[in-house]
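An example makes the point: we print one protein in full, the chain in one-letter code, the fold tokenised, without further comment:
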Amino acid sequence: MKSLLVAFAALSCFAQTIDRTKPPETPPLQPYKLPAAKETTLANGLTVLTVNDPRFPLVTLRLAFRAGDRFDPAKKHGLGETMMELLKAGTAKRNARQLAEELATVGAEINTASAPDSFTISGNVLSDYFAKLLELTADVARNATFPQEELDLRKANRVEELKLQLSSSDTVASQKLYNVVFGAHPYSSMLPTPESIASITREDLTAHRNKLLSPQGAVLIVVGAIPAEAKTLALIKQYFGDWKGEAIPPAPTGKLPESARSITVVDRPGSAQVDIAMGHLSPIRTNQEYFPLIVASSVLGGGASSRLFNNVREKQGFAYSVYSHNTPYRDSSLFRVTTQVRDEVLAPAVKSIFSEMERMASEPVPAAELSATKNYMNGNFVMGMTTQNGVASQLANVKVNNLPADYLETFVTRIRSVEPDQIRAIAKKYMNPADTTIVMVGDAAKIKKAAESIGPVTVEKAQ
């Protein structure tokens, strides 16, 4: 009994030393250590990366290509996304139903995706059925036939999807922002048009596949409880070794415009609010300015503890959602700020955002705020790398975008190394309201005067 009372007393004393008015301090995360990866290049040019992760009886696969939507012909925007969407619609060996049944039989999943700089086929399955996943992935990548009835259905559905997307003001704002910021570069085409979708033929899809889904421009990544190295490589060669293809042609490009202040109001009569998108060209991932920029973006508007959230939303009540984000591409990147506000607070809301951007350039970020931001960013990164999907996706990202081999293992250190003076320099260059592109989508009759209080305005009709 006496010992129990002593224990309670000790606990009571311990509890009294805790200051519950302050959050616990989080020590800096240690650099991330990538699991051992084996890299091989097959005779046909296919790069193979294998990572043995025996924690769970699962295998995750990525087949990524160094091509993407930027390769769409000028009058065929949407060709790449349509091709990827229809890879599972039937092959020379299996129709869509047979493929779905074979996947279901082994509990496997295959998905496809398109992005401006890449095409990706992803899959996962229990380790016992690894060979089957390889077989079906190879069939989809190499032998898709794009049946006419499936193409007709996809085209009809995509046109309806576009109508739904363009009924959203934030999509309209984003599309216009991309048009202005990226200019003549292929990145400017965020969405296809109904006319370009309608023009796509089976012959277009087959030719596009033959040109871009080539082993010479691809990397196959396998992560999980896989067989011994020699057996794994033998299985991969069995299904991908005789795959032939030419080198992927150079990526289409275009002149990126100089950043300059512009304000575009996209008129949508009857809109109940204004959707605002601001943007500026920003550096690519291999540029020394990239890591200071993404830390600065996180401080400015990276979450519920960010400056924009606390000022524009919490303090002034101008918006429910306001954030900043940097989207990296291979040739360039886009730093952007996005929010939605009531018509009557348009001007003060924009000026509040400008004020926070200018403060980033004029005042050093306090040590505690900067430390918390770095821990938040590094925590998200490390947590994402604890899964097979996270590792496979990031390895594909490194390979497809020709990033340094140590990019993942140095990520945490590079975030931790960002200093306040670097953030101020970055903010002066990429968060300067004087050369920021601004798009506002709303009822022009109600918001034009407020928009003009910020600067000269161009009004366009929503399409």
